[in-house]
Amino acid sequence: MGPWLVYNPSGSAPIGLYARSTEAADVGDYVLVRADSEPGHAAAARGLVPTGTPLIKRVAAARDDRVCRFRTRVRINGRKAATALVVDRAGRPLPAWSGCRLLGDGDTFLLQDHPQSFDGRYFGPTTASMLAGRLVWMRSFRPFTGVAP
Predict the structure, then answer these.
(1) Dihedral of CA 124/130/135/140: which sign?
(2) Which of 9, 32, 122, 128 could be cross-linked to 106 through a Cys-Cys bond (beta carbons 3.0 to 4.6 Å apart)?
């Protein structure tokens, strides 16, 4: 199921400590994507995270929302949500999906604010089995510089 406490040191989501909750995630919530899921394997294979590291992503759409991707345009319920890139920073082709999906029970569409985030714009909607739970942000930490404040 994954750890109950998760520390995020990267800028891909708010830096800090999160508690994993068994409550259902809603639009705007952060979730923990299982490391052994298709998105987790794909991120590790691209060298974005170490193998076995779960991902933290934000829920942008959930049940009864319609998500579409045509070429590089990603839309949620008819509104522009993101633009997908064709290649990553290393020039490698990024995965792509095409068409529209109406999200069902337990389905989510994960999308970060950063335009280069590896998220639903490349791996499409996620199912409940790909997620380890909803994350509740607890607190942030300032990096230790070796100098007392």
Answers:
(1) negative
(2) 128
CA angle 128, 26, 114 (to 5 degrees): 90
Residue 143 banded pLDDT, cuts 50, 70, 90: low
Please tell me the distance from the alpha carbon of residue 75 to that of residue 120, in angstroms, as a whole number. Answer: 11
Q: Are 13 and 85 spatial neighbours (Cβ–Cβ below 8 Å)?
A: no
Map residue 123 onto helix, strand or coil: helix
> What domains can you pick out in the chain, each with its CATH number?
5-139 (2.10.109.10)
Which phi and psi (to 5°) does residue 46 adopt?
-85, -5
Helix (H) or strand (E) holding 138: strand 131-139
Query: How large is the greatest C-alpha to C-alpha distance in the chain, in angstroms?
Result: 54
